Model the fold of this input.
Amino acid sequence: MDVKYTTKGPKGKTCADCQFFESTGDGMGKCFGHEVLAAGSCNMFKAGKK
Ligand code: SF4
Done:
């Protein structure tokens, strides 16, 4: 499945709200080993941050 990543996620559905997001600070984080923006989002979004 293609991951459709966007650097600007909709409110409440950003990487920062996602289970797979691990914050590394400065608005950045890791998702499956990739560097992503906390404000980004993608179609793999899963609610329920750890
Ligand atoms: S799965 Fe998508 S929404 Fe969730 S942290 Fe990774 S890139 Fe962001």
